[in-house]
Design brief:
With 98 residues, this protein is mainly α. It has 4 helices and 3 strands; from the N terminus they run αβαβαβα. Helix 2 links the parallel strand 1 and strand 2.
């Protein structure tokens, strides 16, 4: 098993690049741990929709902050998109910003 960490700035193409690392793989679980878009932020919602369209059809997408459980139940390669969004959602859920 290989683990690859793709780092870069916000909106730097990390997701697009990470997807190229698994071009012929089927059964990939794509974990999107960020907030589910609401009507409050049309730019965020558009970005999420673009990401959904860009993923191969054979990939399962899980939009959840329960990253550990999702990884444990995955049967193939896992692409976890955006650790920052995951940590932010954990802090939000625990109401730790104050």
């Amino acid at each position: 098993m290989t683990t690859t960490l793709v780092l870069g700035g916000t909106r730097s193409g990390k997701s697009r690049y990470a997807q190229t690392l698994l071009p012929e793989q089927s059964g990939v679980t794509f974990i999107a741990p960020g907030p589910v878009p609401s009507g409050d932020d049309p730019e965020w919602a558009a970005r999420v929709q673009r990401h959904r369209r860009d993923r191969p059809d054979g990939w399962a997408t899980v939009e959840s902050a329960d990253v550990v459980r999702t990884i444990l139940y995955a049967r193939g390669p896992v692409l976890l998109d955006c650790l920052g969004a995951w940590v932010t959602s954990l802090i939000d859920d625990a109401q730790l910003w104050d």
